[in-house]
Amino acid sequence: MSNLSFSQLNSRGIIKISGPDKREFLQGLVSGDVNNVTANNAIWSAFLSPQGKYLYDFFVGEIDGSLALDCERERLGSFLKKLSMFKLKARVEISDETNNLSVLAAWGNGYENAIGTNSSPGASTQFGGGIAFVDPRSEKIGARIIAPEQTAVDALIAAGFTHADIGPYNRLRIALGLPDGSRDMTVDRALLLENGFEELGGVSFEKGCYIGQEVTARTRYRGLVKKRLVPVSIDGPTPEPGTPIICDEREVGEMKSSEADMGLALIRVENLNDKNPLIANGASLKPIIPDWMVIREQE
Known about the structure:
By secondary structure, the protein is α+β, with helices and mostly antiparallel strands. The protein has helices at 22-27, 76-85, 111-115, 149-158, 167-176, 213-221; strands at 5-8, 12-18, 43-48, 54-63, 66-72, 93-96, 102-107, 124-127, 130-134, 143-147, 162-163, 227-235, 244-247, 250-259, 262-268, 278-280, 283-287. The chain has six helices and 17 strands.
């Protein structure tokens, strides 16, 4: 029996940016290098406040010469308005394509061969009337598909995938330490480098200016990252998102999303290896540092 699985990501929506200035327009706004987006490559990126705080994150792929932004569906309207504010005289068209394009996740051993691409993060190919690409953050989580839902489902089934519940995918995402938008990153408060954007390729330090760039660069070069979003194993009742994490009677972090016995938590760096137990509403938490994560000494 094949272990190749797929599931619709109904919490996601699509914004399309087209027109001759599309790359220059987006490049000056977001943390990732839009020039790296091609028919064969997708990226992960973020839109920040001028103070360098997280507002939106999204994946960017290319479909028929346009840029397709895979973003949170509930917050798509506000993101669309924010992008439109910066349009000015740029020759671009910005539209909500959620009624025409869906987002699906596909995972399992050999998923990249089944969709017809290599295993490099971001590797993209035409698929199901749209595109499929290896998650730019980590090839271990699988691929994302942006395409009309029915043609994508038909193509996945033809490629040997079986429809599955989203639970196992979410647990895998959490175990790998990959954030899921505003579920894990507090809007207008979170910093990119707290949430793995540097190691996971969601921010470029070579591309030049974008909104929030100065603060992000200063945070990196001055070693100002005091907290990190990390996976935690949960022993006890699953704490709700936002539950304070206590160590030695002090609050040292906050719970984020969870699935079964795994969760993500934003924890102060000095407490990641603390010998005293981390407790959240009666549950005992054990931080697990992913192999991709770099904890700098100056933090």
